[in-house]
User: What shape does this take?
Amino acid sequence: MSIMIDKSKCIGCGKCCMVCPGSLTKKDGDNKAFIKYPKDCWGCTSCIKECPMHAISFYLGADIGGMGSKVHTEENGDILKWVIEKYDGTVSEIDIDRKESNKY
Assistant: This one.
């Protein structure tokens, strides 16, 4: 499991670096995030949820049924949207109302 970072979207805020439990995300000389050891990524998705620019995606490999799809999150108020970009170019979205999920 691993993440993918789109440096063209990265603004260098460093939030991903602060939340990575394995200290795997770092900043390069241009202040852009990168993952130092992709194979060591635990797949916790903390960095994906923290990235305000949607620059980080989680790679869903064939070993977990993703066949090369990628997933990232987007926030809109209380709604956390999980966006799945499938290998065939189609996109699926799952909306989670955080206000509703906190009731349980």
